[in-house]
Amino acid sequence: MSDLQFRRHRRLRSTPGIRKMVRENEVKKEDLIFPIFVVEGEKVKNEVPSMPGIYQVSLDILAQETNKLERHGVPAVMVFGVPNEKDEYGSQAYAEEGIVQRAIGVIKENNPTLTVIADTCLCQYTDHGHCGVIRDGEILNDESLQLLTETAVSQAKAGADIIAPSNMMDGFTAAIRRGLDNAGFVHTPIMSYSVKYASAFYGPFRDAAHSTPSFGDRKTYQMDPANREEALREARSDVEEGADFLIVKPALSYLDIIREVKDATGYPVVAYNVSGEFAMLKAAAQNGWIDEKAVVMEKLVSMKRAGADLIVTYFALDVAKWIDEELY
Ligand code: PBG
């Protein structure tokens, strides 16, 4: 053996203390963003069937939820409105007293230190469930930008700290940046869904947000999962248009894209650990087939390792608790 030449990598793995010294990535509470679904009505707390432990809540219950997040140190929420009234142009998305606008107000009043990120899209608000304006069965790009801009401005007026447009129309970042600036919100950052794939992993979210398209699919605006160079083009044009953060969505099947977007832009990258990724893991955990905490932490740290600075995840509250208890 003595003349064998090799490196002893196991030295740095030999004790928990040494392993900690050389650990390259870590999930911190500061990285976490929790998505919240708000609905009309009173005392509503509906569990989403395909997302155990995740609820749609009405405004009178919202503070209970956000207090929990604040108490455990989750620093940010992403708010999704589920309105009662839907119409052709998604007018509740930009109504002054819309569900999301009121929810933003409630959170800012109760938990002023929570960073409130507003999802800016039309699909929950349109009766056809698409993310833009429709004519003759076609999703129109430029005609949708005006409504998306109005939505973003109304959310900023309601007190949103960050605007997160998720609609994937071309030019939405440029249009929204200009709209925010003209309305005096020059300091409100845009967290753009730069790279959003037409993914089957959004299924449970569409149950939660009632946003399944009534015809067709989203493939003319969301990206083909097969494409990588196109993702970089999307990310670059979003940077040119004024995005401050870049979201890659979904996260787990797209870790390569997270890394490439990070390297190509140097901008803060946000991994969106989507509903289907949550549901798969919950189902396996409920069956006792995997160790939920261990698998969740492994998943999230792999997103950090891939280059994500922040992670939107339905596990955010659980993770913050586990970090408190040093349970992982
Ligand atoms: C809507 C939107 C979607 C998600 C966030 N915003 C879904 C979609 O395109 O249907 C998905 C989130 C998730 O699955 O967790 N524009």
Automatic annotation (TrEMBL):
<dbReference type="GO" id="GO:0005829">
    <property type="term" value="C:cytosol"/>
</dbReference>
<feature type="active site" description="Schiff-base intermediate with substrate">
    <location>
        <position position="249"/>
    </location>
</feature>
<keyword id="KW-0479">Metal-binding</keyword>
<dbReference type="GO" id="GO:0008270">
    <property type="term" value="F:zinc ion binding"/>
</dbReference>
<feature type="binding site">
    <location>
        <position position="123"/>
    </location>
    <ligand>
        <name>Zn(2+)</name>
    </ligand>
</feature>
<feature type="binding site">
    <location>
        <position position="121"/>
    </location>
    <ligand>
        <name>Zn(2+)</name>
    </ligand>
</feature>
<comment type="pathway">
    <text>Porphyrin-containing compound metabolism; protoporphyrin-IX biosynthesis; coproporphyrinogen-III from 5-aminolevulinate: step 1/4.</text>
</comment>
<keyword id="KW-0627">Porphyrin biosynthesis</keyword>
<comment type="similarity">
    <text>Belongs to the ALAD family.</text>
</comment>
<feature type="binding site">
    <location>
        <position position="234"/>
    </location>
    <ligand>
        <name>Mg(2+)</name>
    </ligand>
</feature>
<feature type="binding site">
    <location>
        <position position="206"/>
    </location>
    <ligand>
        <name>5-aminolevulinate 1</name>
    </ligand>
</feature>
<dbReference type="InterPro" id="IPR013785">
    <property type="entry name" value="Aldolase_TIM"/>
</dbReference>
<dbReference type="Pfam" id="PF00490">
    <property type="entry name" value="ALAD"/>
</dbReference>
<dbReference type="InterPro" id="IPR030656">
    <property type="entry name" value="ALAD_AS"/>
</dbReference>
<feature type="binding site">
    <location>
        <position position="131"/>
    </location>
    <ligand>
        <name>Zn(2+)</name>
    </ligand>
</feature>
<comment type="subunit">
    <text>Homooctamer.</text>
</comment>
<keyword id="KW-0456">Lyase</keyword>
<keyword id="KW-0350">Heme biosynthesis</keyword>
<keyword id="KW-0460">Magnesium</keyword>
<protein>
    <recommendedName>
        <fullName>Delta-aminolevulinic acid dehydratase</fullName>
        <ecNumber>4.2.1.24</ecNumber>
    </recommendedName>
</protein>
<feature type="binding site">
    <location>
        <position position="218"/>
    </location>
    <ligand>
        <name>5-aminolevulinate 1</name>
    </ligand>
</feature>
<feature type="binding site">
    <location>
        <position position="275"/>
    </location>
    <ligand>
        <name>5-aminolevulinate 2</name>
    </ligand>
</feature>
<dbReference type="GO" id="GO:0004655">
    <property type="term" value="F:porphobilinogen synthase activity"/>
</dbReference>
<dbReference type="InterPro" id="IPR001731">
    <property type="entry name" value="ALAD"/>
</dbReference>
<dbReference type="GO" id="GO:0006782">
    <property type="term" value="P:protoporphyrinogen IX biosynthetic process"/>
</dbReference>
<comment type="function">
    <text>Catalyzes an early step in the biosynthesis of tetrapyrroles. Binds two molecules of 5-aminolevulinate per subunit, each at a distinct site, and catalyzes their condensation to form porphobilinogen.</text>
</comment>
<keyword id="KW-0862">Zinc</keyword>
<feature type="binding site">
    <location>
        <position position="314"/>
    </location>
    <ligand>
        <name>5-aminolevulinate 2</name>
    </ligand>
</feature>
<feature type="active site" description="Schiff-base intermediate with substrate">
    <location>
        <position position="196"/>
    </location>
</feature>
